[in-house]
Batch of 3 targets.
Target 1
Amino acid sequence: MAAKVPVGCEPVVGSLTPSKKKEYRVTNRLQEGKRPLYAVVFNFIDSRYFNVFATVGGNRVTVYQCLEGGVIAVLQSYIDEDKDESFYTVSWACNLDGSPFLVAGGINGVLRVIDSGSEKLHQSFVGHGDSINEVRTQPLKPSLVVSASKDESVRLWNVHTGICIMIFAGAGGHRNEVLSVDFHPSDIHRIASCGMDNTVKIWSTKEFWSYVEQSFTWMDLPSKFPTKYVQFPLFIASVHTNYVDCNRWLGDFVLSKSVDNEILLWEPKMKENSPGEGTVDILQKYPVPECDIWFIKFSCDFHYKTAAIGNREGKIFVWELLTSPPTLIARLSHVQSKLPIRQTAMSFDGSTILSCCEDGTIWRWDVVATNSATS
């Protein structure tokens, strides 16, 4: 990942808009290593582990637990056999028996599926022709994951059987690196992806769902599975004029972020019987100052009430998503946080915000009841 030289930030913790005011303070700061951390994610797949999170950086995947009083406990660590691996993304998933899996990918283009119960590598998925920029899990069927790659494709995988079910690429696919991908929260067939071609594309698996069902009962080698190529998306949106490096569904709406210092909330309006065509209604804009480098991803709490995003100066902006006009409920900064925050993770109820940084640090912010600012 290309990094830009960041500038400093003020040693304050602030919050705005009195009606929605929230204050957070730093309760922990961990130095995981010297290599940049590109992803941090809570486990929203299993209610037993809502306070457990994972990070990736270099060839390491580390699992932690958030405890009371700002305490962060290290639970386990996986070091990839390839010293040259640099993981960019990680997602929680689970096997059919409910055991928690971690799926990580990065510069080598190989997906590592780790059984965090046995603390062993479960499987490796080879297929992408270049680095993997993001992995996401289907919340309604968490043994399905989708990966976005520099090879201009999106792939749908079954972590239970190791099968690559579908590849979204080709004539109507992305024309540059795919940087982000997400499953629709309630429509099991919909996927949104975005990338360096400045577009967001919405795909559907509905027509090919028999391939998904077949992937669970396939008895032959995964390499013999009749992987389906999906070349044409349902919808193509050009709502940004530069790289789009993060997109998330908000119900039937889409939140997407480019390198132009803002997140957009928009509604795709597809034309019936005209795949790929339609219009976009931009509903709201969430400004994020000094967020003009690529590969900075935002996160939301479990119910998508709030979103948190870092910037290249080490600051975090927390937005209330369900208000109009948009409400910035907190702006977080610390004198020692000066480098780009690659990703944030919000806890189940949004009371804890984690950030992973270019310098290998993990920051924990917790909401406080007091209205006085803390430095």
Target 2
Amino acid sequence: MSADSKHSDSIHVEVAYALPDKQAIVPLQVAQGTTAIDAVRRAGLDRQFEGLDIDNAKLGIFGKVVGPQQALREGDRVEVYRPLIADPKEVRKARAARVKERRKGDAPA
């Protein structure tokens, strides 16, 4: 096998994870057919971020959620998503209720 054919059997991808105060983007060269979860495991983010549960984390590629068995393509960036702290619908509902209360207090008597 020539060096060129060996090189063409691999692709370049990135694996990204971020906390509010720390982030990591790990460039990898992997074999074609590598899955999203395989790339995340290979990136070793669980060694850099204490408590990161790779096996149960949601994954995405460029902002679109994908399954762990999603095959990667050249240039893909696999993103490891953190669990939501609050349900976005509940946050919007609470914000709307606060605005309504404020308006009620501003209304002329």
Target 3
Amino acid sequence: MSTHPLPGARGARRRWPRRVAWGLLAALVLVAAYGASLYFWAGARLRTTEAFRPYAGRPGPGEGTDWLLVGSDSRAALTPEQRRELHVGGDHGRHTDTIMLLHHGDGGPSLVSIPRDSYVRIPGHGKNKINAAYALGGAPLLTRTVEEATGLRLDHYAEVNFLGFVDVVDALGGVRICVPAGGLRDARSGADFAAGCQGMDGVQALRYVRARYADPLGDLGRVKRQRQLVSAVADRATGLSVLVPPWRLVPFLGTSLDALRVDGGTGVAALAELGLEMADLSGRKGATTTVPVAGEPEVPGVGDVVVWDSERAKRLFDALRNDTPIPTSGPN
């Protein structure tokens, strides 16, 4: 029996690696084209707002990059039915329910909660709760207030409102949250959760993070839940089940971009970097904490406020400015 290969077999073997190479090249081109189209599509959809204005004495740049992340409690875009479902009432004022500093540099990300009742100086308006800055002068006054209170120069600003937050969580198919022992029930926010890990849709997640009246820690307990939810959203959003299938990724990105407003100097690349830093935090690679508090007195005409521990707060902000490890009680 002849052992010679059939005519054409040797040529077919030579062509096989070439076909594989061309196939891989075509796949890479398709992936690159898909990524580029997403990039330009996202850039065209990105919504911006004025967040920074020049002013005398503005802090100079520090090491690394600092974001101000804000959750607005504006009810202006909500229907009466949505207000009832979200348990947010009918107040038409503009305040910030969530204020966080995200720093990232060589030492990894750090997420710092600023209690919304922090008693600070608001330029041109005397001392008040920090969340009043947004109501008095929008994002520009809030960013200036945060910069002057912390000594940090902010590089980026991102804001999401109630309804946008709910839509983002729902676009992910919900998130998984572990409720501490004792559960959480708060008639004001609508929270009613037994202890243990459980899935939450957008409305449930909002009720969970807004609860504070039934929490013995009040606003300080709420900021911990806010960081917990941010980590849960980042963990879900950076999972393969969302990132890989276009039919999941594109709707999620569209919903997120519709929910967000960023400063005019922030583009898609910066937002992508923000997402990666959030993913590191959800993987417990970074540090999270709250601005150190000295007390929660009542101020006539203002109400119950949060007063910072000035020495410990300065150490925290100095660490952020110098991109060194922050004093923290650990990830939570």
